[in-house]
Amino acid sequence: KNQVEQSPQSLIILEGKNCTLQCNYTVSPFSNLRWYKQDTGRGPVSLTIMTFSENTKSNGRYTATLDADTKQSSLHITASQLSDSASYICVVSSYNNNDMRFGAGTRLTVKP
Amino acid sequence: DAMVIQNPRYQVTQFGKPVTLSCSQTLNHNVMYWYQQKSSQAPKLLFHYYDKDFNNEADTPDNFQSRRPNTSFCFLDIRSPGLGDAAMYLCATSSPGGSTDTQYFGPGTRLTVL
User: Fold this and answer.
1) Per DSSP, which regions of A1-112 are E strands?
2) Using CB atoms, which residue from A34, A42, A89 is nearest to B42?
3) What's residue B32's pLDDT?
């Protein structure tokens, strides 16, 4: 059973617009949540990582939020660029950091 | 600057012909992982090494084996590739030192099975 659910599955936006991607999880006990960006045909690249006590973290135009009570996270992309077109993957880890659950990802397409 | 290196980037093999994918790292990380990722799906963990300790996922087929001769290198051996094994294979590393260590991924090897 997949314990990390991402939505939407895919998203198309115009260049310059903002968007928000969602991640809901049931992984327990919770250790940390990461967002990765994966370009087509490449390995994932880490964007943010948050622990239980953190509720927001930014990396340039990317801002991740975490609500550990409701077990929800979001990734907000501001002023999107064509290079933001990629899959965004949410990964939730349990206390044993080798137990990581991957979401299926959101495929984002930014159009000019 | 490459920290996790995978070779080759693209590999073509024939049905049933053994193939080995390689991964090396310059980060001196304790943990190395192998993932299989099929199109439009999340990466699926096959196994990982914590130093020399090998940890196999319960649903990883016996067809997949791994070797880690030293800290820097890790290999994925597919003994008899089937058509269903065509996928991107991702290597990753991490160095557990708390709850916020990052996992670093290689660029992946795209395996085609003819």
Assistant:
1) 4-7, 10-14, 19-25, 30-38, 45-51, 56-59, 62-67, 72-77, 86-94, 100-102, 106-111
2) A89
3) 93
